[in-house]
């Protein structure tokens, strides 16, 4: 495949289009997808690339996301490199098949353009969709800008198809505020990308010449062992993820970590964010540092497998950790990220006060000032020694 | 069968895949049955419809002598009760009504 986009220097491109281009560079065999806002541009553009004859792949237009993921399971089971993209209601409709993809150890790569869930119906960004799928057994990676989307999509195929992993991978990006934004993104030579991703060689596949059965019943005598095997596979994928990120840094220059840090040296307080709004929060961190507030930022890139130990090591020494969730766990113990951060810290002998803030729901903007306000408020809670279970940011009372 | 019975989680094939064909022959389902099929040999014409419709292994071709309309068969269909779940499909499909379903324990 020729280079469709100039390589080696940043080009202005919509992030959705950029992701489609890099998926094509990764030489996928099958794309089965159903269009849903704000994922639409990704699959539309992939359909164009296939129709233009620039990618030798089957594009399967299906009648729903349930069918999309089912088709992906089938194509991956025969040994085809498989990609799909979805969000929100579409991801929710895929729900039951997500478990099947991971349970059958099929290395499907999916883009999830994070969007709110109905009702009320809302097409804009938040992370409610992916948080409802956190237990599906997929590797789940977050990004915060277009370059990260491109880079993590390349990494996703190599992680998923590694013989030691053989699990599906979701690459998350924010709906609209990332997906529909034109950003400067550096592309890589297609040959180099294909060399990095490699040729998919499935250890097991459906083949009439050597019949085998994917997806047999797991009776009570087997089911627990099957779940244990999946759990260990996902936990142990962490090592491969680190290896792939290190290899990516050597090959293409950009380095990635499960937890990215920003101005955390000497920080007494840490603001923890996930996804595209992390960049807005970083601007707030700069402003607070200028005011002399000893605050830093931790950005959670790897959501599954969850980096418990790293979090405990990084956050444990802080006085206060302020977690920003773009998802409401309705009447629950806090936002999903805050809950898990608390879990990681709870058994430490000394631990920071964790304060959960929930905002940016359904495309609501969160400003630099609001992130700064969260930090100030959090510091106040630390001084008082207590905080509410969680609180919502920017809600009209 | 390659797959071990009651494997540890480490011994399971990737994704619980059954890596060979025909292994259901080793999974006996006959004890699920509450009704069993009984054939009236006078009505049976050895057509094989029961064999074609049986969803499991329970109808099979066995070496048995049977005379039908003057022709002598050396093999014809018999039940393997290790697999018969008692679903009754053979009885429903039998064109001559030769097969009837009888509750277990009754004759």
What key attributes describe this structure?
heterodimer, A: 397 residues, alpha/beta, Rossmann fold, 2 domains, six-stranded mixed beta sheet, 18% strand, B: 4 strands
Describe the protein in words.
- The complex is a heterodimer of chains A (397) and B (107).
- By secondary structure, chain A is of the alpha/beta class.
- Chain A is built from twelve helices and 15 strands.
- Chain A has helices at 15-25, 40-51, 65-77, 88-103, 128-131, 146-161, 190-197, 220-252, 278-290, 308-315, 336-346, 368-384, and strands spanning 10-14, 30-33, 58-61, 82-86, 109-114, 139-142, 169-174, 182-186, 259-262, 269-273, 295-300, 302-304, 320-325, 353-358, 391-392.
- In chain A, helix 1 packs parallel to helix 6 (146-161), helix 3 (65-77) runs parallel beside helix 4 (88-103) and helix 10 packs across helix 11.
- The termini of chain A are far apart.
- With 107 residues, chain B is mostly beta strands.
- Chain B has a single domain, classed as Alpha-Beta Plaits, CATH 3.30.70.
Give a quick precis of the structure.
By secondary structure, chain A is of the alpha/beta class. Chain A has helices at 15-25, 40-51, 65-77, 88-103, 128-131, 146-161, 190-197, 220-252, 278-290, 308-315, 336-346, 368-384; strands at residues 10-14, 30-33, 58-61, 82-86, 109-114, 139-142, 169-174, 182-186, 259-262, 269-273, 295-300, 302-304, 320-325, 353-358, 391-392.
């Amino acid at each position: 495949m020729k280079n469709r986009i100039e390589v080696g220097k940043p080009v202005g491109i919509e992030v959705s289009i950029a992701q489609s281009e890099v998926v094509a560079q990764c030489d996928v065999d099958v794309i089965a997808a159903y269009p849903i806002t704000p994922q639409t541009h990704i699959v539309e553009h992939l359909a164009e690339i296939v129709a233009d004859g620039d990618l030798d792949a089957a594009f399967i237009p299906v009648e729903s996301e349930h069918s999309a993921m089912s088709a992906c399971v089938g194509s991956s089971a025969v040994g085809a490199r498989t990609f799909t993209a979805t969000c929100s209601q579409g991801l929710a409709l895929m729900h039951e098949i997500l478990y099947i993809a991971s349970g059958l150890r099929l290395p499907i790569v999916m883009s999830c353009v994070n969007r709110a869930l109905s009702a009320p119906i809302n097409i804009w960004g938040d992370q409610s969709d992916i948080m409802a799928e956190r237990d599906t057994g997929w590797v789940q990676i977050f990004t915060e800008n277009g370059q990260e989307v491109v880079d993590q999509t390349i990494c996703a195929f190599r992680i998923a198809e590694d013989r030691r992993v053989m699990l599906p991978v979701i690459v998350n990006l924010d709906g609209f505020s990332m997906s529909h934004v034109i950003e400067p993104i550096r592309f890589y030579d297609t040959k180099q990308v294909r060399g990095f991703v490699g040729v998919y060689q499935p250890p097991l596949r459906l083949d009439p010449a050597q019949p085998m059965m994917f997806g047999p019943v797991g009776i009570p005598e087997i089911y627990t062992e099957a779940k244990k095997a999946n759990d260990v596979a996902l936990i142990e994928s962490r090592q491969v993820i680190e290896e792939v990120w290190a290899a990516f840094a050597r090959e293409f220059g950009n380095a990635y970590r499960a937890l990215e840090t920003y101005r955390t040296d000497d920080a007494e307080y840490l603001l923890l964010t996930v996804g595209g709004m992390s960049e807005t929060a970083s601007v707030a961190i700069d402003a607070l540092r200028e005011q002399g507030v000893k605050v830093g930022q931790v950005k959670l890139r790897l959501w599954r497998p969850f980096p418990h130990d790293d979090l405990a090591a990084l956050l444990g020494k802080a006085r206060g950790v302020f977690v920003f969730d773009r998802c409401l766990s309705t009447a629950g113990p806090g936002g999903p990220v805050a809950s898990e951060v608390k879990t990681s810290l709870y058994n430490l002998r000394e631990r920071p006060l964790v304060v959960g803030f929930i905002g940016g729901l359904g495309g609501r903007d969160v400003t630099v000032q609001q992130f700064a306000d969260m930090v100030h408020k959090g510091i106040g809670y630390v001084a008082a020694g207590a905080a509410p279970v969680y609180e919502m940011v920017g809600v009209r009372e | 069968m390659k797959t071990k019975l009651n494997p540890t989680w480490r011994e399971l094939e990737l994704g619980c895949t059954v890596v060979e064909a025909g292994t259901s022959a080793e999974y006996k389902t006959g004890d699920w049955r509450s009704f069993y099929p009984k054939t009236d040999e006078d009505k049976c014409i050895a057509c094989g419809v029961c064999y074609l419709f049986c969803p499991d292994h329970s109808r099979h071709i066995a070496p048995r002598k049977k005379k039908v309309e003057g022709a002598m068969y050396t093999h014809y269909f018999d039940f393997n009760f290790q697999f018969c779940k008692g679903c009754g499909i053979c009885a429903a499909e039998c064109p001559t009504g030769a097969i009837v379903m009888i509750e277990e324990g009754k004759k």
